[in-house]
Model the fold of this input.
Amino acid sequence: MSAKDSFSMTLATGYHGRARPLWEGAVDTGNLNLKVLPMRDDGERHRRFDQGEFDAAEYSLAMYLSLKARGAPVAALPIFPNRRFRHAFIYVPATSKIGKPQELKGKTVGIPSYLNTCALWVRGILKDEYGVAVEDVVWKVRRADPDLAPPAGVRIEPLDGKKSLCARLLEGEIDAAISPDAHQFEVEGVRRLFASAKEVEKNYYLRTGIFPIAHAVVVRRRLLDEHPWLAQKLFDVWNEAKRIALEDDDDPTYSNFAWIRDLWAEEKKLFGPDPWPYGITRNQAAIEALIRYGVEQGILKEKVEPASLFYPVQE
Done:
C-alpha cells in the first residue's frame, strides 16, 4: 500500500471485546485512518449505515442476505465479530405447557422482525433438528420488512403497539418468543424452552461444527473497488483486534469473572485456541447453513456459493 492509497473511513461496530482494540487505538492500521464508532444499539447502527452515514459497519447477516438478493451496492467481508448459539434464545411463559420444540407447531411466535439473524438461525434449527418448518408457525413481528416477499404458506403478522415481546409473552398474546435481547426475558414468569440450553448447544456444535454467525462487516462496494488493498487491510486489522481481545481473555486479572480460567479451558477444549474464526474456510459449515436457511425462508432468491457472498480476501 502506498501513501497515495491511504485514506480515512468510518466504521461502526458493536460494543464488545472483539472490536474494543479498534476504538481504543491498540491496532496499527498503517495508512488506513479508521474512525471507529462503537454502538450498543444494533438497530441504530443498521439504520445509520443504511442511510449512508458510515463507510462500513458491523451488520446483521440476515439483513445483508436481503440486501444481496436485491443487488444493493455493498459487500460483506468474512469478518464475524458477533456470533451466538441460539437454542437459549427461545422463550415461553413459565406456566406454558410447551415443553419441547416440536410443540411450537401451530403456535404464534413473536420475533423482532423476520430479517432478524437470531430468528433466522432458530427457524433453520427448528426445521433441521426438530421437524418444525417455517410454515408451521405464525410469526408475529414487531417490525415489518417491506422489501421481503416470503414464500407461499409462510405467515407473518404485525404486532400493533410498542409493547415488548416479553410483555406480550406474559400477557398471553403470543405463545413463545425468539429474541437476541436476553436481558428482556430474565424476569419472573418467563423460562427458556431449553432448560439445559448450554448442553444442547454444545452437542449441536459437536455434531454439526456450526457456531452460528450473527454479524459480518459490510462495506460500501465502491470503496472496495476503488481501493484494491482495502478489503485485505480491514480483514487483517480485525484479526489483529481479535488476537488482542483473546489475549486479554486469557489473562485472569483482566476479567470480572471469578472462574474465567475454567471457562477459558472449557472453550479451548471445545473450539481450539480461537472460538471466533474469521474467513470462509473455517466457517464453511455455518455459512452453507446460513445460505440454505436464507433460501428456505425466502430471504435469498436462490442458493449461492459461500465465496459469492463475501468480497475476496486472503485468509
